[in-house]
Design brief:
About 15% of the residues lie in helices and about 35% in strands. It has about 130 residues and is α/β, with parallel strands linked by helices. The strands form two sheets. Strands 1-4-3-2 form a four-stranded mixed β-sheet, covered by helices on one side. A four-stranded mixed β-sheet has the order 5-8-7-6, covered by helices on one side. The termini are far apart.
């Protein structure tokens, strides 16, 4: 019998205008670890997300990004949202203050250099 169960998300790919600028954001603001990327014939970067997922940046964005907290976005679950708020404040990053979701989790949103909105959420907010 054929199994058609999806097991997980392996990676998310997003187009970016300036790979180096986006790499700095994802390394320094979201603290993702860059990983080795195959030698493709186009610019980009790969980052580890959690244990088995990745974020892939693909260079040469030419179209407008359509993203928002109630539109296209992606979300990362984090251990403690307050720690992230403190980090964003230290980095002088612009983000939306913590808000409680209807399911009880807390969330904040931050925008990357290309206009992608990223949600960070946690059940803990101390």
């Amino acid at each position: 019998m054929l199994s058609n169960k999806i097991l997980s998300i392996n990676h998310i790919s997003i187009h970016v205008k300036d790979v180096e600028l986006s790499k700095a954001f994802y390394k320094n603001i979201l603290l993702l670890k860059e990983k080795e990327r195959p030698a493709f014939d186009f610019p980009g970067a790969w980052f580890e997300v959690g244990e088995n997922q990745e974020l892939h940046l693909i260079g040469n964005l030419t179209q407008a990004v359509i993203s928002g907290s109630r539109s296209n976005h992606f979300a990362f679950e984090v251990e403690n949202l307050k720690d992230w708020e403190n980090h964003f404040n230290q980095q002088k990053a612009i983000f939306r203050q913590a808000k409680k979701r209807s399911d009880g989790a807390w969330q904040i949103f931050i925008e990357d250099p290309d206009g992608y909105w990223i949600e960070l959420f946690s059940i803990f907010y101390e």
